[in-house]
Write a structure and sequence with these properties.
The protein has 5 helices and 2 strands; from the N terminus they run H-H-E-E-H-H-H. The protein has 174 residues and is mainly α. Helix 3 packs antiparallel against helix 4 (104-116). The chain starts with a helix and ends with a helix. The model has no long low-confidence stretch (mean pLDDT 82).
Length: 174
């Protein structure tokens, strides 16, 4: 599919309500800012994780010696909450496992309990924001390309016509 055909398939509705226009502009700015901050946050989190992997073992060794913190200049590093093992149960998996091993009457009871404890979550649609400047750049490029092609074909046609006339003149002289 050609790029131009794809672009023409996009349907748009022009917004005329000034309040909605202002809200859309704010939404677009916030979306850009969130994307920028998210990218920066990912970078910072990766650096943080590397440093945390170095500092955590030192802090855990301190805890074994009953010391509570590391101090460097005006920085105090402590463990906020000790790590621990937590056991959780996958009740649905357990009920399905039990269901395979019981009689049909009890299987119905298990099925009913699974159905009654089922929860449905509604996932909201996501909104995409794209500045038209990027699309208009593509549109301008396509327009320039079309203009250049039209200019080229016109010059080629004129050269072809001139060449035909020159051939006719040569034929008449011969």
């Amino acid at each position: 599919m050609k790029l131009e055909e794809l672009y023409n398939q996009i349907t748009e509705k022009q917004v005329e309500d000034p309040e909605l226009i202002a809200q859309i502009k704010d939404f677009a700015e916030l979306s850009d800012e969130i994307d920028r901050v998210s990218a920066k946050l990912k970078l910072l989190q990766s650096k943080y994780k590397i440093l945390e992997d170095v500092i955590r073992p030192v802090l855990e060794e301190l805890d074994e010696t009953k010391e509570k913190a590391l101090e460097v200049e005006n920085i105090l590093v402590t463990i906020k909450r000790k790590g621990f093992d937590r056991t959780s149960y996958a009740y649905k998996d357990a009920l399905i496992w039990v269901r395979k091993r019981i009689n049909p009457a009890m299987q119905k009871l298990v099925d009913d309990s699974l159905e009654q404890t089922a929860k449905t979550a509604t996932i909201a649609s996501q909104i995409g924001v794209q500045k038209l400047e990027e699309e208009s750049k593509l549109s301008k490029f396509m327009d320039r390309l079309k203009g250049a092609w039209k200019n080229f074909t016109q010059k080629l046609s004129a050269a072809n016509n001139q060449l035909s006339q020159d051939i006719d003149v040569l034929k008449s002289k011969v």
